[in-house]
Specification:
Elements (H helix, E strand, L loop, with lengths): L2 E5 L2 E3 L5 E8 L7 E7 L6 E6 L6 E3 L7 E6 L4 E6 L8 E8 L13 E2 L3 E5 L2
Parallel strand pairs: 2-11
Antiparallel strand pairs: 1-3, 3-8, 4-5, 4-9, 5-6, 7-8, 9-10, 9-11
């Protein structure tokens, strides 16, 4: 069974950077689209970015366009989220999720597998 583990969260200053990793085990990610989602305290979970199974197609929420970059290394069974120019409003728990589709989507309802999340705090 596919298992996902996020890492790379932590404390960053406004304007700083973090790189999140989503490592998969149990199954190859070659056939899975991957999404990154986040949930801030008191708010609903929202889609941040996603990447198709091939890596050719990516999507971003408007709030992170131009600042975040999603990528994947299928040889390492890992997906990354590079977060630059971080803002306090990026503070949230970040989750990666997988769905067995070629294309990705920022709606969480179609994702079957979820990691446990990693916390990101942006504060001076």
């Amino acid at each position: 069974q596919l298992q996902l583990v996020e890492s790379g969260g932590g404390l960053a200053q406004p304007g700083g950077s973090l790189r999140l990793s989503c490592a998969a085990s149990g199954v190859t990610l070659d056939y899975y689209a991957i999404g990154w989602f986040r949930q801030a305290p008191g708010k609903e979970r929202e889609g941040v970015s996603c990447i198709s199974s091939s890596g050719r197609t990516t999507k971003y929420a408007d709030s992170v366009k131009g600042r975040f970059t999603i990528s994947r290394d299928n040889a390492k069974n890992t997906v990354y989220l590079q977060m630059n120019s971080l803002k306090p409003e990026d503070t949230a728990d970040y989750y990666c999720a997988a769905r067995m589709f070629r294309l990705c989507d920022l709606s969480e309802t179609t994702y079957n597998y979820w990691g446990q999340g990693t916390q990101v705090t942006v504060s001076s």
